Amino acid sequence: MFRPLPLAKLTFEVVGPKVFEWYILNHNYGVNVNLFIDHSQVVQLACLRSGIWGTNIWEGCQLEG
Fold it and tell me: ∠ CA 45-48-50 to the nearest 5 degrees?
């Protein structure tokens, strides 16, 4: 009666870069997960998927002074 839906048939609505990262990097859905985003965040999502932009690029850095 009920069959699990394949991931390719699902779309998740996300708000903001931290949520992008959760779906793509931390929740094992990978870069091909379907995400519904605001038009102003298309470039940031594309860069995160390609691996050239992350939301925590300064993690572990310390300011000198």
Answer: 110
